[in-house]
Amino acid sequence: MKYIYSVLAMLAGAGTVMGQQAEKKIDSSYANSYYVGRMEIFRTLPVQKGAIVFLGNSITERAQWGELLPGKAIVNRGIGGDNSFGVLARLDTILLTKPAKLFIDIGINDLGRGLPVVVIANNYERILQRVKTLSPKTKVFAQSVLPLNEAVLKAEYLKNKKALIIELNERIRSLATQYGATYVDLHNAVFADEHGDLKQPLTVDGIHLAPKAYVLWVDYLKSKKYL
Length: 227
Prior knowledge:
Blueprint: E1 4-13, E2 16-27, H1 33-44, E3 52-56, H2 58-61, H3 65-68, E4 74-78, H4 84-95, E5 101-105, H5 108-112, H6 117-134, E6 139-143, H7 162-178, E7 182-184, H8 186-191, H9 211-223
Parallel strand pairs: 3-4, 3-5, 5-6, 6-7
Antiparallel strand pairs: 1-2
Helix pairs in contact: 4-6, 6-7
C-alpha cells in the first residue's frame, strides 16, 4: 500500500512559526510484505489485556522483552522497517487491548527515507492524541530515537542523520510534555558515546543493537521506575 501525500513543511524558530513554507511530496508507504506478514502473526496471537506493549521497528522487534522481564505481561509489537505511518495504521488494534504501559520507539526509518522532521513529529503527535482518545489510562513512554554509528554503518540512506535525530528527539520530548507522556532519553542516557554516536560495543551494524544493549535498555527503564 502506498500513498503520496502533499504537505506543507513549515520552518519554525524560537517557538514562532515563520511565514516561509515549502511544498514537499511525502512517501507514506508502510505495508510491505514483511509488515503484512507480521500483522498476520499478531492477529493469530491471544489477546492480552492490560499488558506492557513495546511498539516500534526492528530495534524493538529484535528484543526478547518477555525473557528480559520475566513475570510481566509483555507484548512485542515491533515490525522491522516500520515507520510512523505504519505505527499509526496499526495503533487502534493495539489500543483496543487497553495496555497498562506503551513504550514507543519510532522514527529512524522515517529519517532514512528522507521525511522532514516536521512530518514525523506530526505523526508522533497523532499517535499520542490517539492513545489519549482510545486508551486514556495507558501510561505512555515516548522513547528517544537511538543514535547511529557511522563508522560501521553500511546503509548509506541512514548516514548524515545525527543532527536530524537530535532535532526529532527534541520534538518528541516536547510532545511528550504536551500530552502527559514520559520522555525516555535512551539516546543520551544509555546509547550515545561522548561524540553522540551509538557506542560501538552495543551495535552489530551501526543501527541495530547487540544483545547486551537490550539488557542495558531494560536496566535503565527499571532504574527510572518505568517498569
